[in-house]
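Handout, page 2. Input:
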Amino acid sequence: MAADSCSRLAATGSRFVVVGGGIAGVTCAERLATEFPCEDILLITASPVVKTVVNFRQVSRALEEFDVEEQASSVLERRYPNIKVIQSGVKQLKSDEHKIITEDGREYTYEKLCLCAGAKPKLISEGNRFVLGIRDTDSAAEFQKRLAKAKRIMIVGNGGIALELVYEIEGCEVIWAIKDKAIGNTFFDAGAAEFLIPKLSGEKLEPPIACKRTKYTTTEAEKKEKAGADPGELGSALGPDWHEGLHLKGAKELSHKVHIESLCEIKQIYLQEEFQQSQKVSLAFPKAQQDEGNAEPDQELWPVYAELTSGKVYGCNFIVSATGVVPNVQPFLEDNNFAVGQDGGLKVDKEMRTSLPDIYAAGDICTTSWEPSPVWQQVKWMWILLRPGVWKQ
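Output:
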């Protein structure tokens, strides 16, 4: 690369600035670095690690094969000398001045800006230590740690993460609360759901099928850098097969034990002391799905209790909030007139342009605003499907 012979802008500004160290932001920065070798590409990320594509291979015209790794940002900078990673969160965007202000007080100007800040879990209860959202590798590791000591958990949600958890968890009673009539209604119809329900309670006898999709690994450099990160900082989104390598087993000696509560949502969450004062009665785990109407009162005390809109109350060790994600748009909305979708994401057109000039968006932070095909929908948790294949200068 002939980067040394190119004239560069100062580190406080660049023609291209990308915000976000997830797969969308890193892929965008890498493509820009390749297409514009004489330009400095600034990548601003709050995390000390980034997700990068490695071992890429074009299998056919429409089929690609590659691995995705979480790596230290320094690895990305060595691979692309014209990419400079700025480790800091974004405090404010001044779109009229073409300027980004980071949390450490620095300002960076841009000609073109791409926002790839991702999303965060949409928790059913903010600030409750017994409610866990699974979004990145850190939260997945925390879930595994808590599960190992748990005898019963409640999972709220009916999307991809919830489906995977309910099937994979062993050694723990699982209360699965969904607002729909059937499980997995985003992915299959009610008939298919009925066919799959017995699989949630039976033994997993079949050997694991060899996975032919992308694999996800954590490098040693990533582990060291992440150890010094802010524990409250969100990392990059999980991809498919995220649970491989995790030991999802509870404290009981049993295989699958799942009870489904359909057509309901969480009405209120009680801590143990609050529940005892409420004089409410919690239910024991039903012996069978058909016996839910005859459930007996639970004699065991639990750290947390969930009251459902159906009126039932269940105690558990902790609650998993798997009700989707909320786009990370907050640092960018103040004094900027972005068009925002119903889900809170920045609206983009077919060329990923937002409603403001010179600002683009990609990944979970954005929402498609064009008229989609009747058989197409935007999916915000399987980002592997969203890797762009076309570049327009």
